[in-house]
Amino acid sequence: MAKSATPEPATFQRILGKMGSDFPAAERELSALAAAHPGSFEALFYLAFLYNFRKEPERAAVALERALAIRPDDPLATFNLAYCKHQLGHLKAALPLYDQAASLGNGQQVDAAIQAAAVRHQLGGIKGARQRYDDLLNRNASHAPALYGLLRCELDSGDRQAAARTAADLQGQISRRPDVATQLVSFSNRYDYHGWRVLDDKSRLATLLRTDDTSAFPYLPTTFVMPDEADALIAAHRQGDYWLAKPAKLFGGQGLRLFADPQEAPRQVDWAVQRYVADPLLVDGKKSHLRLFLLITEPRELGGYLWRGGIVRFAPEAYRLDAASLGDAARHVTNTVRFLDHPAMRLDGKTSSEGAGNVWQLVRFLERAHEQGFSSQTLWSRFDGLASGLLQRLARQEIFNTQARDCPAHAYAPKILGLDILLDATGKPWLLEIEVYPALSGGAAPAAQEAMTGLFQAAAAVMVDPYVTPSDDPQSKETEIARAQGFKRCETAAG
């Protein structure tokens, strides 16, 4: 009996439902479906969705091109292919695809039109971009991402009076409707400069943070990129060491493996192996990690702002490290999404003052750290040192300079990076990974939602308020507003 051209929708939903808990299994099943049903648009489309979710736009683009060969005028596939090209830095290829997606309708029509304007700006076509933002705003005068795109065009045109009017309009909308800040910040962070992608890969990040003389970034646990550095890993092993293997491109704590014998390290590509921080600072006997947020507003200034808020996530079970507990992820892994069904997982800590459940606001964690002898001032000084050191390494690797060279100054919106940090028992912060697209919804935990609402409001003010009044020194105004919104500026050596 011949196979149907397209599997049932329930089959795709079942497979996609595995992505949060077993991404490799979801990939295997979708790849098999696409191979078994080569004429299935849906199989290829969802396979591309999976690759995009794992931040592999190269593979996603190939799947989408095959899907569009089957259904050439599908608006969502066209938009997603444009997005992949955009993420790869292929702006001239992305532009006609965004234009096409905008003309085809569907729910992505407005986003496609905004991105078509944005790419024109990024390619230096400021006048054409400005006209398209005006066209969009003639249809919806209160669309925050379109207004912000227009503001950036006006700044790069040197039209400070027009920029001040647009900024004042945006500022008024944000003050009247708090959800506008959420819309503005989340949209801007999603469509970012393609050069940031390198930070999402744990293996590439480890390599990036090494200086020319190969000295290690002092806040990153000793890391080896597999399989090329397997021998170096074995040579670095000391009695009593434990090692953590991480899939370089997965998320949510998936695939983590803890072991004592370096011979057990995976030898495949796309794995990084780190020396395990065996003495974490515990609160109520449990291990945690901190999510801090670094806002980067303008690459030419070689600096960023570290927000004085954040989120702390706890493992569901008490920490223990011995041979018997190495496979017990609930004692070692702090990613909430991995343990949503664990009986000890609680997401009901409701306010900044509560230290209940497995997700807290940072302020409460710092109070508990103070009880163990670590003042907030001391810890923030260390966090600032980590963030400044990180920015210095990124500056040396030309991420800032490349963006500044490739496009007008305001062609890309400010960027929020999520820094996942572990504090050890001495109060030293360790950078576990960087999230280029940190979850900005807050998830199901009220404490996280409250924290993210504060971040949205603070970041939107830094993005918009410096331009409400024309100034010869908007950088100083930005720094002043950022400080008032709970940000601390972190400079690089070159800043």
Model description:
The protein has 495 residues and is an alpha+beta fold. The protein has three domains: 183 residues, Serine Threonine Protein Phosphatase 5, Tetratricopeptide repeat; 236 residues, D-amino Acid Aminotransferase, Chain A, domain 1, CATH 3.30.470.20; 55 residues. It contains 19 helices and eleven strands. Helix 4 runs antiparallel to helix 5. The chain is globular, with a radius of gyration of 23 Å. The mean pLDDT is 91.
Which terms summarize this structure?
alpha+beta; 3 domains; single chain; seven-stranded antiparallel sheet; four-stranded antiparallel sheet
Element-level helix/strand string: HHHHHHHHHHHHEHEEEEEEHEHHHEEHHE
Query: What is the CA-atom radius of gyration, in angstroms?
Result: 23 Å
Mean pLDDT: 91
* Count of the separate structural domains: 3
Share of residues in helices: 40-55%
User: Treating each run of at least 4 consecutive H or I residues as one helix, how many helices?
Assistant: 19
Topology:
Layout: H1 9-16, H2 23-36, H3 41-53, H4 57-70, H5 75-87, H6 91-104, H7 109-122, H8 126-139, H9 144-157, H10 160-176, H11 178-190, H12 202-208, E1 223-226, H13 230-236, E2 243-247, E3 257-259, E4 271-275, E5 288-296, E6 303-307, E7 311-314, H14 329-332, E8 359-361, H15 362-371, H16 376-396, H17 399-406, E9 415-423, E10 429-435, H18 446-464, H19 474-484, E11 487-491
Antiparallel strand pairs: 1-4, 2-3, 2-4, 5-6, 5-7, 5-9, 6-11, 7-8, 9-10
Helix pairs in contact: 2-3, 3-4, 4-5, 5-6, 6-7, 7-8, 7-9, 8-9, 9-10, 10-11, 10-18, 11-18, 18-19
